[in-house]
Amino acid sequence: MSSQENAIIRLEDYRAPAFQIPRISLDVHLAPHDTRITATLEIEPSSQNRSALILDGDGLALLEVHLNGERLDKDSYEASPSRFELKQTPQAPFTLTFVTCLNPEANSTLMGLYRSSGTYCTQCEAEGFRRITYFLDRPDVLSIYTTRIEANEAEAPVLLGNGNPVEHGQIEGTGRHYAVWHDPHPKPAYLFALVAGKLARLTESFTTRSGRAVELGIYVEPGKEHMCGWAMDSLRRSMIWDEEVFGLEYDLDVFNIVAVSDFNMGAMENKGLNIFNDKYVLADEETATDQDYAHVEAVIAHEYFHNWTGNRITCRDWFQLCLKEGLTVFRDQEFSSDMRSRPVKRIADVRLLRSHQFPEDAGPLAHPVRPRAYKEINNFYTATVYEKGAEIIRMLKTLLGAEAFRKGFDLYVERHDGTAATIEEFIACFAGASGRDLTQFARWYDHPGTPRLRADVHHDAEAGRLTLTFTQELSKAAQDAGCNAFEIPVSFGLIGPDGRDLPLERGDGGPEGVLVLTEQRQSFTFEGIFDKPLPSLLRGFSAPVKLEAGLTPADLLMMLRKDSDPFNRWQAGQDLATRELMRLYEEARRGGTLACDMALVNALGDVLGNEDLDHAFRAQILALPGEADLARDIGSNVDTDAILAARKTLRQAIGRQHGALLADMVIRLDDSGPFRPDAASAGQRALKGLCLSYAAASGLPETPELVARAVRSAGNMTDRLAALTAAVHEGLPVAEEALLSFEARHGGHALAMDKWFTVQATRPHPSALTTTDSLTHHAAFDWFNPNRVRALIGAFATGNQSQFARADGAGFIFAAEAIKRLDPKNPQVAARLLTVFRSWKAYEPGRAALAEAALKSIAAQPDLSRDCSDIVERCLA
Ligand code: PHE
Ligand code: ZN
Fold first, then answer.
1. Is the ipTM of this complex over 0.95?
2. What is the pTM of this model?
3. Pocket-testing residue among 187, 381, 385, 828, ligand 1, by greatest number of atoms within 8 A of Cβ
4. Given 303, 334, 387, 580, the catalytic residue
5. Closest Cα to atom 11, ligand 1: which residue?
6. Does the structure show a pLDDT above 90 at 161?
7. What range(s) does the Peptidase M1 alanyl aminopeptidase C-terminal domain occupy (predicted)?
8. CATH numbers and ranges of domains, the chain
9. Would you say residue 508 has pLDDT above 90?
10. Is residue 1 very low, low, confident or very high in pLDDT (cuts 50, 70, 90)?
C-alpha cells in the first residue's frame, strides 16, 4: 500500500483549491467492457497561484491528454491510475481534455460507472467521479456540466443525465444513439450521474407554486412500473411539503428517479437524477410491508430535499458532511411526522438513534458529528453524522423556537445558495437571525459521546417551592478537551396529582416548556407549588442524552398512564420494561429461576386493551427494548444469552397473562377491506402483528393453531411477514409450511426473498448459524448484491445478537469469513458489515476474546481494503 493510501486527512489541513473548474463537458461512449470517456475541463488557476495542477484519479486508464486542444506528449505530464500532474501549468485559464477507458461490467465496487442488471449507472459520492476521469474531486470545486451520452440503442434505449435534456438523435447506420444533458446549476463532482439502459418509466407532471412545469419520471426494470405508484405519490407530496414548510421550490424542468438493484447505500441525490436502491422505490401490497412503504416515503423525501440542502448549498469538505446529511434527515423526519403520526414517528426515530448511534458513540468507532480526521470517508456515513446530526438541528429549533429557526434557515439559503458551506457558516445564520450566541451550542458538533444528565428534584411543601437540579456529565473525550457542559434544551412539564400538567410561570423568558441548560450543574426553581408534582423531563426526547431522573416504579406507572407527552408515556413504559429485564438478566447470570413482576405485565395489558390510544402508539409501547438496547444499557461484561433469556421470559409472561385478549385482538384487528398503506391502517396491522408475536411466545396450547391461521390467511406482505416471523422464531409446527409457501410465492422477487432470508437469519435460536450459512447457497442469494448480503449476513450479525455473539465464537468467525470474502469485491459493503464488531469490548471476557481473535484474523488478511483496515484498526486500537 502506498503512503498516500494510508494517509489521514485532517480538517485543520484544509486549503482552498488552487484551481477552479467552472465548466466541464463529458462525452461518454458506453460499451459493456470498453467505455470511452472524453472529458474537457475548463480550468482557472486562482489568483497568485503558481502551483502545478494535480488531479485525482482512481484506477484510471488514460488514453490521451490535450491541453488547449493540442495533444500532449508524455514528457509534459505525469499520470498514474490515481493521479495526474501537469508539469508546466499555465497561469491563464486553459482547457484540458482527457480520454479514459473503463470497464463498467467488471466494476464490482459499485462506485464510479458500473452495470446493474444490464443498466449502466454511476455512483460518485463521495469520491467516485475520479474513477471516471481525472478531476479535482472535492466538494468545493463546483462546475457546470454538459454531458453527451452515446450507446447502442437496442442495449440502452434510455439515456439520462443531470439537469435538463437538450438534444437527442440517432447516429445513422451504427445502431447507436445519443442524448445531451445540460445542468445549469454548478455542482461538485460527487453529484454527477448518468444512467443508460432498458428501463420502463412512470411519469407525472408537477407545477411548482411559482408556475414552473416539471416532468417527474421514475425509471425501473420493465415489468415493475406498477410498483412505482407509491414512490411517485411520495415525491409529489415531498415537493409540495418543501414549498409549504421551507419555502423551497424545484429548479429544473425534469426530475428523474432511477431504481437499480445493485446499490451500496439507500439512495443518492444526484442533481435532477436521483439513483435509488430499488428497495426504496418499489412497493405494492404483495411484496412490501408497511415499514417498506414508510421507508420509501422517507427516502424519496430525503433525496428530494437534498436538492436544496446538499445540492444548491453543498459542503466545503467532507468533514462538513453533517451540514447536508443531519439537516436533510431532520427535514425528512419532519415530513414523515406531518404525513403520519408525529409521536409515533418520534418514537421510531429515537429507537433508531438509541440502537444505532448510542452504541457507536460508546465504542471504538465513536467520532464527533463533525469529525476532525478520517482515513476513508466512506466510513463516515454513520448514524452519528446522520441521526445525531439531525438531533442537533432539532435542538436548535427547540432552542430558537419555530419562527426564529425558519428565519435562520432562510438566511442560510439566501447567503449560501450556490456555494460550498461549513458548519460555522450554517450556525452563524441562526445566530444572526435569532440574536443568540450559539458558540456553546456548536460544541455539540465537536465532541463524541452521549452526555449523561442527572436530574434531582427537591420539593419544599411548606414554601411551595420546587427545585430541579441538573448535572451534566460529558464524555471523557469532551472533558479532556476542556468542555464540561453543552447547551441542552430540556422540554418538560410538571404533572400534578390529578395527572394533569400544572400551569407554569417562569420569569426568565426562555422558550415555553423548555429549560435551557448551559452549566455543568444548574438549578431551576418554581414557586407556588404546594402539592408535590411529578416532573416529566426531556419530553419528545428534546436532546440526545442519557437521562437519569430518579423516578420510582410508581412514578413511571403514573407517567405511563397519564403523561400528556406521548413520547414520555412511551418512555415510561420502556423504562419499566428495561428495569424488569435488567433484573431478570441479573437473575439469569446467577443461574436463578426467572419469574416476572406481574405489576408490569398487567400494566402492559392495560395499554394493550386501551381503546383510547391509537394502534400504532400501543404497538410502540408494547414493543420491548431489543436485545441490543439491553446490551447497551448493561454496558460491560455483557452476556448475550442471559439477555435473550430475560426477554424470552418477559415475552412469554405477557403472552400467557393476556392470552385471551391477544387472541381476540388478532381477530378483531383483522381488516378485510382493500389494502391501504396509510398510517392508520399500518398502525392497525402493527398492533395485530405484535399481538400475534406475543401470542406465539406464550407457549399456550391454542397458539400453534392461531399462528397457522395467520400464516394461511395473510392477504398482504405485512401480515404474511408477521405470521412467518412468529412461526419461525418460535419454532412452531407451521414454520416449515410457512417458509415453503412464502418461497413458492415470492421466489422470483428478490426484495421479497430478502425478508425470507432475514426471518431465518434472525431466529433467536442456536440453529440460526447453520441455517444462515446454508442459505448462502440458496439460488436467490448473491454475494455480489448488497441487499442480499445485508438481508442474510447483515441481519444475522446485527439482528440476532445472541447467535452472532455465541459463546463458542462461531458467529464471529462466520461474520469474519464473510467480510474477508466480500472485501476484494466490494470494500464498502464489507466495511459496513465489519462495524457489527464495534461493541466487542463490552462483551464478557470469553466472548470479547473470541471477537478480538476474529477481528485480528481480518486485520491479518493480505491486501485488506483501506475501508476495512480503517474500521478494523479503530476497533482494535
Ligand atoms: N448522500 C446519500 C444520502 O444520504 C447517501 C450516499 C452516500 C449514497 C454515499 C451513496 C454513496 O442521501
Ligand atoms: Zn442524505
1. yes
2. 0.98
3. 381
4. 303
5. 125
6. yes
7. 554-877
8. 1-198 (2.60.40.1730), 313-445 (1.10.390.10), 452-550 (2.60.40.1840), 551-747 (1.25.50.10), 750-876 (1.25.50.10)
9. no
10. very low
